[in-house]
Amino acid sequence: MVFDLISEKENLKNSIYILFLLLGLVTSAQTTPPEVETDTVEPLYYYVEGDSIARSAIFLDDVVVLARLKFSDNDARRRYLILRRKTRKVWPYAKLAGERLVELNARLDAMKSKRDKKRYTKIIQRYVEDEFKEELKKLTRTEGQILVKLMYRQTGQTTFELIKNYRSGLKAFLLNTTASFFDISLKEIYDPVNVEEDYLIEDILQRSFRDKILEPQDPAIELNFLELTNKWYKAKPKQGID
């Protein structure tokens, strides 16, 4: 019985790894030279009504202003910090998945035969196996669940749907059943509008983007952080991952 549970847990950890293989976590063989940044910005000119002299203006990037976090107690603060650490850890994987899903779909759409598509998928799997397998398998249960949510944020599909679409419905069903034994749902969506913990994850992402701790990426789902903040502002952060 113990051996069966260990085996099931190992299968669960493999599921997210398998998904990343299918999404094609591989860099293109073609490289492009990096853009050269300069210290100068070409000014734009505008006229003030009633003034005949053109004036120059430099438009700066938008600055996200976030309210200072307030916690109900030290325990709430601790939970938020734990959630922040786990979110920052798995974000790069979710971001990469969003990028590679677009690339994978484009390449598969360009292939006419199922044989070519199957062959391409196997090549991708072999290429990235050694690089990503062990790292993804080290994720904890809670980190895996956060990753599942962020995968939905960046792809617009649940992990269950991704596995179903790129492997088979039976495989997705078996993986989701196994995941349920360990309190992880591959059908989990990302819903910061109605789930406070998801809002806190989004808050962590926005603050990390602003502070250049994480590299930003637009979500595949519709999100308005200002509206979310207005809704949850009065509810002090008090939830998080244990």
Automatic annotation (TrEMBL):
InterPro entries reported in the protein's UniProt record: DUF4294
Protein's name in the database: DUF4294 domain-containing protein
